[in-house]
Automatic annotation (TrEMBL):
It holds the Pfam family Fer4_16. The keyword 4Fe-4S applies. Binds 2 [4Fe-4S] clusters per monomer. This is Epoxyqueuosine reductase. It catalyses: epoxyqueuosine(34) in tRNA + AH2 = queuosine(34) in tRNA + A + H2O.
Length: 314
């Protein structure tokens, strides 16, 4: 092993140690290069319009596959995972209106980005100037693919990243930078013959194992779609009004999910007291107060009212 290899390994250990100190659950490293295997898959997925009205998914095709087109001189992708599995959950009975667990607290974009900025700052103190960019769902970056290449898990049949130790309830972020590091290798796929996520999806959005038609997903209908929800899916939402956790909830690997340690992700106190009637009668004032720094703001009040009305008619 050369001196350069020792330096790269030491640098990789430092990055992971700093990430752990800042509260990230997992950190992995990969070489910033062209995602050759993903190119035909992405093209095939887009050609079949499985992105629906998420037109941004078709933009910057080349940048989505090559991080060096996003950051000049990029050599590495640092992937981090931050657990959001809640200790206190909203009721999810047959008649309860349901909210995806990732939206219980503060919008993850703020929390994850702040932690990642601090990680870069601490690394610069130890290593020196770093040229790079932080990405949290904010650019054409295939976060689950990079996390898998970094050994943080594998992409399951529901298209979410799965980690053997803690399941899939994670936020993913990337730092694409010019640091030369010792990369991690991928792990094997442990889904086996299980098809619980495929079988459980009420809108048949998982059209085949590992392929999700985004335009048929409950999360798409309740968050991304800006027009009226089509009648053809009426009666299939199982009371989800923002996002959907069904494919994750039924996954056997999530029996290992552990409560997160990030206070910002805790269930908003007022949201914890919400009843179905509160959702049905929600006002602009209440919406702005309860969801002031929440991912739910993305739908705006009109979107939530549309979603609530749609499932209450089922």
């Amino acid at each position: 092993m050369t001196t350069d290899d020792f330096v790269r390994q030491a640098r990789s250990r430092l990055i992971k140690a700093k990430a752990s100190e800042l509260g990230f659950d997992f950190c992995g490293l990969s070489t910033a290069d062209f995602l050759e295997e993903e190119a035909p898959r992405l093209e095939h997925w887009l050609d079949r319009h499985r992105h629906g009205q998420m037109h941004y998914m078709a933009n910057h095709f080349d940048k989505r596959l090559d991080p060096r087109k996003l950051v000049d001189g990029a050599k590495s992708v640092i992937s981090v995972l931050l657990n959001y599995y809640p200790e206190q959950r909203l009721p999810e009975g047959k008649n309860d209106l349901k909210l995806s667990k990732y939206a219980y607290g503060t919008d993850y974009h703020f929390v994850l980005k702040d932690k990642m900025k601090e990680l870069v700052a601490q690394l610069q103190e130890e290593i020196g100037e770093i040229n790079g960019r932080i990405f949290v769902d904010s650019a054409p970056v295939m976060d689950k693919v990079w996390a898998a290449k970094s050994g943080l898990g594998w992409v399951g049949k529901h298209s979410n990243l799965l980690n053997r130790r803690m399941g899939s309830f994670f936020f993913i972020g990337e730092i694409i930078c010019d640091l030369d590091v010792w990369p991690d290798g991928p792990v094997k796929d442990y889904c086996g013959t299980c098809t619980r996520c495929v079988d459980a999806c009420p809108t048949d959005a998982i059209v085949e194992p590992y392929v999700v038609d985004g335009s048929r997903c409950i999360s798409y209908f309740t968050i991304e779609l800006k027009e009226a929800i089509p009648n053809e899916v009426k009666g299939k939402f199982e009371n989800w009004i923002f996002g959907c956790d069904i494919c994750q909830d039924v996954c056997p690997w999530n029996r290992f999910a552990q409560p997160h340690q990030t206070p910002e992700f805790n269930l908003h106190p007022e949201l914890a007291e919400f009843t179905n009637r509160d959702w049905e009668e929600i006002t602009q004032e209440v919406f702005e107060e309860v969801f002031r720094r929440s991912a739910v703001k993305r739908t705006k009040l009109e979107g939530i009212q549309r979603n609530v009305g749609f499932v209450r008619e089922e």
